[in-house]
TrEMBL record:
UniProt KW keywords: ATP-binding, Cell membrane, Membrane, Nucleotide-binding, Transport
Recorded family membership: Belongs to the ABC transporter superfamily.
A GO BP entry: peptide transport
Protein name listed in UniProt: Methionine ABC transporter ATP-binding protein
Subcellular location: Cell inner membrane
Membrane topology designation: Peripheral membrane protein
GO MF: ATP binding; ATP hydrolysis activity
UniProt-listed PANTHER family: DIPEPTIDE TRANSPORT ATP-BINDING PROTEIN DPPD, OLIGOPEPTIDE TRANSPORT ATP-BINDING PROTEIN APPD
Length: 326
């Protein structure tokens, strides 16, 4: 069995709770692994803790956010224990992140060339000419036409979709071992979205790059990911191979997400939906966080269920779905 590139164990990320006091747990006891050349789809509704998990791995949390406990082992090194300077040597070079909003990454008053060249030279001692060539090649890789000319453009001269492709190109500059993509295709049209997904598939196959793809779009996960981890209210509720989880979900929440996909409904029949809303982390119900929205809940669910192993997956539920959906 191969050693995973990234192994997150019992990760807890809190907001607030300074001077030893417990804060609000946005990520609560989350564990998963990502192997080289594989894609993990991290899915769930808004507010489930997906993006905070990605920020925790990248050590990009701002106060009052902090990693309260757990391990983030990347290639044998616990990122949670590194100093800020040590983490800067890894972030951007060995681990890259693609943000959902490209304007979080791009500086509006600097040309694309300036920003990409600086990104290259921040980690590699190369000339500006070589750095510029790498930047141009990266733009071409993500499908930006006339990359030589577009290097001199400013972010506002690109469309939203083109800016997102620039951000992805920046993430690819150092051929990182791990890419964390936080809903990177949300702002793109279907055609460009398909192109970007194809590029990521090629990247994992040819470069053995590992990817964590954060999304709420199960269609993308089914096409791109090898494994899936489903989050709800800060906790992991189900994980395993995409092929088995999406065809035979065990957790009621996973089953509800799949059932609510429009393509599964018949014409003229109202769309299925999960009742209620994801609770805020300040108002989580006692026990299983999904209990108040679940038609399978019993008094046993007043206690937080552990992650039960089920064949090739893990399920956090006392009353899992026992047969495949139709």
């Amino acid at each position: 069995m191969t050693t995973p590139l990234l192994s997150v164990s019992n990760l807890v990320t809190e907001f607030g709770g300074e001077k030893g006091a417990s804060g609000l747990k946005a990520v609560n006891d989350v564990s998963f692994k990502v192997e080289r050349g594989r894609v993990l789809g991290l899915v769930g509704e808004s507010g489930s803790g997906k993006s905070v998990t990605g920020f925790s791995v990248m050590r990009l949390l701002e106060r009052p956010g902090r990693i309260a406990s757990g391990q983030i082992i990347f290639d044998g090194v616990d990122l949670a224990r590194l100093s800020n300077e040590e983490m800067r040597q890894i972030r951007g070079k060995r681990i890259a992140m693609v943000f959902q909003d490209p304007m979080m990454t791009l500086n509006p008053v600097l040309t694309i060339e300036t920003q990409m060249v600086e990104a290259v030279r921040a980690h590699d001692q190369v000339s500006k000419t070589i750095a510029r060539q790498r930047a141009r090649d990266a733009l071409g890789l993500v499908g930006i036409p006339s990359p030589e000319e577009r290097l001199s453009s400013y972010p506002h001269q690109f469309s939203g979709g083109m800016r997102q492709r620039v951000v992805i190109a920046i993430a690819l500059l150092h051929k990182p071992e791990l890419i964390i993509a936080d809903e990177p295709t949300t702002a793109l049209d279907v055609t460009i979205q398909s192109q970007i997904i194809s590029e990521f598939q090629k990247l994992t196959e040819e470069s053995d790059t590992a990817v964590i793809w954060i999304t709420h779009d199960l269609a993308i996960v089914s096409r791109l990911a090898d494994d899936i981890a489903v989050m709800y209210a800060g906790r992991l509720v189900e994980s395993g191979p995409v092929s088995s989880v999406l065809t035979d979900p065990k957790h009621p929440y996973t089953a509800g997400l799949i059932a609510s996909v429009p393509s599964r409904n018949r014409r003229g029949v109202p769309l299925r939906q999960i009742p209620g809303m994801t609770p805020a982390i300040t108002m989580l119900p006692k026990g299983c966080s999904f209990r108040t929205r679940c038609d399978r809940a019993t008094d046993e669910c007043l206690v937080v269920p552990p992650l039960f192993p089920q064949q090739e997956r893990f399920v956090r539920c006392f009353h899992p779905v026992m047969k495949a959906m139709t």
